[in-house]
């Protein structure tokens, strides 16, 4: 016994790893400077990952850092949801209690899902953003804790991590931006086979430039010699080093085992497997210690002492003696907290566990489960239900396992660990038929299910049905991103429902199928929603009925806005109120308000949306409030009240960040980009669009961000970038689920790019596709800019011979579409005038009066870029048709337009303004006249008359003068008559002589060079 107690197999000398430790220390230094660091440490089992982390942690503590360690916990084949993060956060709470409490302030209910010590986790409906919200709050918590002090979070054994832990780690690695923080994780590389769930995550993280990979290689022969010397505390025999190096192949753990075996005279032959060697070490223990080792191996990564005592059923002295033997032989270790035991290396635990007989394994799991049922305090409270479910499941006792697994599924759902909830529910479905009928009959709907709203029954007394499990599993699959599995479950449920008279449940599953089809890019989801509506039609009001109507109204708002959508939203609100479904009601009212704005009831619609936002904030319905911060500013912008929208959007950014509503935040960024573009804040618009791309995890907000960047690039004249972003937006949005708010804007940008590249026929084809698809009522926000882009392209190409063919038909089609498009807000009334002015310009029929009306309409709107464009058009019309007064007005208009174009970086507009000013001999900048006294001033001629006199001296006719100066021939004739009278001469020849005498050159000074 004493020899076993004194056995030591760990080298006191840290061998090798200088380069790897240097990488970790460099990361620590960068983090201390305020740059968060993310690292992955990989290597085969036993290569020394844990020892490296321990050495780094010791060095980090010497530098004043706080180190929080967390390990992925394995119970049988199961991982506990978020276990390493919970452990690490507990460590932070012990080390920095004040800092962590301050960082979590206001979000304790949500963060309690990871750290129950913070309080009671919040309830409420579960939605797609629940997990993302928890992840965002966790990231911000770590950033705040690490604001003033360097923090190292080390997560070990990622190969055992549950899906939720993997998702959270990936989120942290992608999004950490501030704080003196190092996050590192270790994993066993030789376990990552092709279908291992960690493999896709590693591939994803490899693409992030912010994540560093550290791969631990095996020791070379020299390092093995140093390790053996450290273990034996003496210089080893070279032959022994050669033998151990050859046998271990440089694996640090096997070196330790072989060195101890050799030192103790173990005669294990070189042909024996290393696994057998590990078992030989265990088999060398006393029988009681071997028995305890087998019990610990099946209990999980760590087994608490009290639980172990209950399962082992040994006298306390005998148990302690057995543990002393196992610890002394370096088979088991006491946990850092001193309340339990674990194997020194997982390879030994796996070898012992694999050596168990099937009946022995089931018996041990049953004893663990019985002990935990008898005394739930044997394990930490947040692990209890998960471990009990795992023990009963692996004990193969369906009667006990089914309720335990369902309890664990509820616990996983409460923590937003939807991947684990789905796995547990699939186990429950597997156990359902084998569990006794009386056990199934005792289960109650209200205890386990919440995703499917019960209609006309009391959840507390209604028995749980198999279809209820399927509903929960479908919901969990959708929420965790396992949409294929969720769709498969949904289809199976609908197949089972074909033989049952349960239209409400069938309607609910059809709604889920609609959402999944859209998310999987397999359609727009309308066929499924229509089926759901048919199933509930004529039934009494219920929560399912209200949910179906609310989804149908939301779908119609995005795809086919109009009277039918408005009616559907009104009915959804009515039904939700009747059955007391408050969240559904608020969502439906928000949809209704937006449709009212689109239908022309602007003030009442906006009032409804403001009311929903305020009520959602007061009642703590964060998801609805987040949606309100997206839809309300969008509605304001759609009626030209952009100045009112921007503060709301910035308020929405703060709100969505605080509550971790990533999808809503991405939409807020996209809408902020559109609004700041309209207000002429183009740099801010570019930053906001980048925010939508950075934050958005789904395709649609990312597609909106790309469209905003394409629109900006088009305005700035970068056609290549505009085309690239247009292609990116189309790739994000796809073709499976077309929505007018996307398709019309895509077509508008495509027309602008094609026109800018001189591809008028492509622009016409894009317009035809858009108009063929239709512009339903309520799409004026995107319809008017589309028609404007098409009309402008036709007007700009009016002098091209190739454009003449089919022009009349194209212009007529634009006019017809304009007649059907709403003008119920000043912004769209202004656009209507602009479109009609461009159509007149395309036919050379526009006048200064035409454009003056357009300018007047835009002067009262917050649209500086649009105002600059129409001022440029008005200036051209004034120079073409007006006199001296009109020329002065045109000059001022061009100066204003040029100033805005320069400020925005709108190169095409700036160049067009400069060219027009140059041709008209107008200065775009007012400068003091520092030239010598002009002899012509004595003649009393205006600046326009001087220009005319120069052209007279050059021999131009009245018609040529008119063309050169953008005036009519009649006006030119009047100018010539005035000049003759002022000079006191009788004809053009004498006037030319006077011009020569006073120094007016007859050369043509008005010939313009090409701008840009």
Short description:
The protein is 66% helix and 4% strand.
Question: What topology does this entry show?
Answer:
Blueprint (H helix, E strand, L loop, with lengths): L1 H5 L11 H15 L4 E7 L5 H14 L3 E6 L2 E2 L2 E2 L3 H13 L1 H8 L3 H4 L18 H16 L5 E6 L6 H13 L5 E8 L9 H9 L4 E5 L5 H12 L5 H11 L3 H12 L10 H10 L3 H13 L3 E2 H8 L3 H13 L3 E3 L5 E4 L2 H9 L3 H17 L6 H14 L3 H17 L3 H15 L4 H6 L2 H4 L17 H15 L2 H15 L5 H17 L6 H11 L6 H17 L3 H17 L2 H17 L3 H18 L2 H17 L3 H17 L3 H17 L3 H14 L3 H17 L3 H15 L6 H17 L3 H14 L6 H17 L10 H13 L6 H17 L5 H12 L4 H18 L2 H21 L2 H13 L23 H11 L4 H8 L3 H15 L4 H10 L15
Parallel strand pairs: 1-6, 1-7, 2-5, 5-6
Antiparallel strand pairs: 3-4, 8-10, 9-10
Helix pairs in contact: 2-3, 4-5, 5-7, 7-8, 8-9, 10-11, 10-12, 11-12, 12-13, 13-17, 14-16, 14-17, 15-18, 18-19, 19-20, 20-21, 21-24, 24-25, 25-26, 26-27, 26-28, 27-28, 28-29, 28-30, 29-30, 30-31, 30-32, 31-32, 32-33, 32-34, 33-34, 34-35, 34-36, 35-36, 36-37, 36-38, 37-38, 38-39, 38-40, 39-40, ...
